[in-house]
Amino acid sequence: MRKIKEFVIEKSLLSSALVTIAVTVGIISVLAFEAFSFFQEVSIVDFFTDTQWTPLFTKKHYGILPLLTGTLLTTFIAISVALPIGLSISIYLSEYAPKSFRKTIKPLLELLAAVPTVVYGFFALVVVTPFLQQFIPGLSGFNSLSAGIVMGIMIIPFVSSLSEDALFAVPKALREASYGMGATRLQTAFKVVVPAASSGIIVSIILAISRAIGETMIVAIAAGQQPRLTLDPTVPVETITAYIVQVSLGDVPHGSLEYKTIFAAGITLFAFTFLLNTLSFRIRKKFREKYD
Fold it and tell me: What is the mean pLDDT of residues 196-217?
């Protein structure tokens, strides 16, 4: 009977793994097939070099650069907010906070990740943007600055929680050796603990960047839907994910070239996040070898 139970459990776990792999392969296959169909009609060179994205207009251009710029701009703003705040929180919780305070505040911080992103989007639109308009004359009602700031708040738990876990996992012997050499707690934190935990910290940052790149509702609500090649955070922009939402919910005929643009944009986004994850794996492996 025991062997039967173990056999059932083993096969159930294997089935779950195979289903996950099959779904992933299916998603990639659909993206690749539809994107290939798109690139049979649109030059891939024009796709990556044209500075205009107007597939839904009469005069059509299929340059992904405006969408890519909008995505990277909002992501840069988000990580500029999340990185210093999240890393500071993680260092405080790991090195300074009492154990009882750490156990209380960490779950509360992680609740930020549980808030629906549509709530963040409306918060950016009706609270953050009007507030910033008091200090930034000419700030548009839709802009990448507000969207990026709120997106940064949303991804703080990705940085703080994972970084804190990495810092907390550093052996106490390293801290004690540092104290024994006369180092202060601050010096120990930044010159011993943080470098030793750099693998986990880098992974948390890459994960946060990937999460920001793939965010949809915040940028769709607060950043606008005007694809433009600009680095000005005060004007409306459109990200890749926001464009996919726009076309998916619109009246674009299924199977048309305009409809296929969402798959071309989607596989571009997939390739970008895949490269980020590959980079994080290589960096993590390098630092792990250094400190193990």
Answer: 88
Q: What is the mean pLDDT of residues 269-283?
A: 83
Q: Which pair of structure tokens corresponds to residue 121?
A: 């989007």
AA letter at 256: S
Report the 10 Å Cβ neighbour count for 42: 19
108-to-104, 114, 142, 158, 161 alpha-carbon distances in Å: 7, 10, 30, 13, 11
Convert 241-273 to b/e letters by CB count within 10 Å (16 or more is b).
bbbbbbbeeeebeeeebbbbbbbbbbbbbbebb
As to burial, measured by CB atoms within 10 angstroms (0-12 exposed, 13-18 middle, 19+ buried), residue 87 is buried
Could you tell me the pLDDT band of residue 11, with boundaries at 50, 70 and 90?
Answer: confident
The reported pLDDT for the residue numbered 289 is 47
Helix 144-168 vs helix 198-213: angle between axes, to the nearest 10 degrees?
A: 150
pLDDT single digits (tens) 209-230: 988 998 889 999 999 888 989 9
Would you say residue 86 has pLDDT above 60?
Answer: yes
What's the CA gap between 165 and 260, in Å, rounded? 42
Contact 227/67 with Cβ under 8 angstroms?
Answer: yes
The token pair at 31 is: 């993206």
